[in-house]
Amino acid sequence: MVADNVIFNMHITHDGVSVSYDQELLHDIWHAFQRGYKRRIGRFKNNFMAGMFPANTITISIVIAAISLLRLSIKLLLSYKGWMYEQPGKPISTPTKLWLGLLNLMSKSGPMMHSYQGALPHLPLPSLNDTIERHLLSMRPILNDEEFEELEHLSEVTDWWEEFVYMRQRSPIMIN
């Protein structure tokens, strides 16, 4: 007895290889495969929305807005610099007390290390010449005149270095 529903037939004859397939049956198999995966994806979405995360999109939006507002307020609180200008030995001013209370209230959750790193205000980078000047000023007391002159000569940033190497080169510079 020969089966009629054979998808793929291959015969090797003296003329060559003869291949025949049932296109309609392959089409039905492909649709069954698609239907199965669509059901799996639908079940996954349903299980996710109903089981692991039962909140709707409005609740998610409110939570994200609250977190963003909290982070923004912490960022604004951390940018306050009035506490640096308080006179030592005198009572703390009311704005600084209010700032300390709000900061304490906002950070009560026991943050992990570096968790407020993104909330800190961005600091500007100092210019290269100012950094070199401060470095030379800090090295002056520990070097004699000859060593200091050599260090001063080595610390000069030439126009060539700035233009062609520092500004245009994006790969790491090989040292030694």
TrEMBL record:
GO process annotations (BP): carnitine metabolic process; fatty acid metabolic process
- The membrane spanning regions, by residue number, are 53-74
Q: Can you tell me which residues the record assigns to a coiled coil?
A: none
Read off the Gene3D superfamilies from this record: 6.10.250.1760, Choline/Carnitine o-acyltransferase
The pathway this protein participates in, as annotated, is: Lipid metabolism; fatty acid beta-oxidation
Indicate the segments forming the Carnitine O-palmitoyltransferase N-terminal domain, all copies: 8-45
InterPro entries cross-referenced by the UniProt entry: Carn_acyl_trans (IPR000542), Carn_acyl_trans_N (IPR042572), CPT_N (IPR032476)
What's an example of a GO molecular-function annotation for this chain? carnitine O-palmitoyltransferase activity
The record's section on Pfam families has: CPT_N
Catalytic activity, as annotated: 4,8-dimethylnonanoyl-CoA + (R)-carnitine = O-4,8-dimethylnonanoyl-(R)-carnitine + CoA
Alphabetized, the UniProt keywords read:
Acyltransferase, Membrane, Transferase, Transmembrane, Transmembrane helix
What are the record's GO terms for cellular component?
A: mitochondrion
UniProt-listed PANTHER family: CARNITINE O-ACYLTRANSFERASE, CARNITINE O-PALMITOYLTRANSFERASE
- The protein in question is named Carnitine O-palmitoyltransferase N-terminal domain-containing protein
